[in-house]
Amino acid sequence: MPVNQKGPFRRPVAAAGKALAALALVATALPSPEAAAREAVRAVGSTTVLPFSSLIVERFVRETGYPSPVLEGTGSGGGFKLFCEGIGAAYPDLTGASRTMKESEYEACLANGVDDVTLIELGFDGIVFASAIETGPIPLTYETIYLALARTVPVDGELVANPYERWSEIDPDLPDADIMVIGPPPSSSARDFLADTVMEAGCQGFAPVDALAESDPERHETVCKALREDGPFVEAGENDNVILQRLTSTPYAIGIFGFVYLEENRNAVIGNPINGVEPTYDNIVEGDYPLRRTLRVYVKNRHRAAIPGMDTLLEYYVAEAAIGPDGYLVDHGLIVMPEERRREMRRRIEDGAAWQPDF
User: Fold this and answer.
1) Which residues are within 8 A (CB) of 282 and not within 5 positions of it... i.e. 6 or more apart?
2) CB 5 within 8 A of CB 16
3) How confident is the model at residue 4 (pLDDT cuts 50, 70, 90)?
4) Fewer beta carbons within 10 angstroms: which end of the chain, N or C?
């Protein structure tokens, strides 16, 4: 185990012996027999953040000699659940997310003693609705996505079980093909994004739906956000490779995943325009593409002195060589944040700034 290795900020890290001793102190704070010391950082969370974490970890291990951190793609929701379960070696040190932590998740953290957390942002990503290259672009809007995927939709002024089976039944300019959208499970932040951003916006402007906003807010939310379960929407789990396989074998199928995965598979799939805007790097960085989101990592500060190399790894996460305009993460699809925002992330790591949510 290296001692006094230097990371991107050129600051010395704690000796391994001190780190293990600190970890022992953290572990003894827990009654669980599982809270035994470990030497490698453990990170869970978003499968969209995971490819970037993998690249950072690869460089971190190569340049420092620390043990390779353990990375688990659990989805943002699954990551928050594991992250908030407690303090000590039995619990993750970091969780990646492509959405912010919910109030209920934050309360679970506090209830389990996870009360000193730093939030860092890596950059931007976009949710894309992709198709196989052979299919060609399918122009989509919030409205057409809502009408294709909602469990209940307005037809002739009435709210009914979704009758649409083919895209052309919604809009004659769309393909005369069966509706099939392959998307993420409830544990994924992309699923939350689909419901809270796309579906919520797509249901607006229909008189019978708008009338529920005041008369029955609970049903209004269900009508706007509940996805159909009769076949056209297919859950694919947390593995984007499964979605890719379905797209390339099913004509006119549409898959939902992050922009980074689109970039990695441009030889097989294309991103469909949303509200007339294509999912390109420039459109996302400028904020023109409507489905942009921020990629985040939540850090347990009480673990930083306990896990060997954790402080140095965090420096790698926010180093300009990673998240800057010429950074190696950009080559793999990360959308860069403004310079001042990147400097703020480095300050947060150096200071161990505690995250203060604004619920």
Assistant:
1) none
2) no
3) very low
4) C
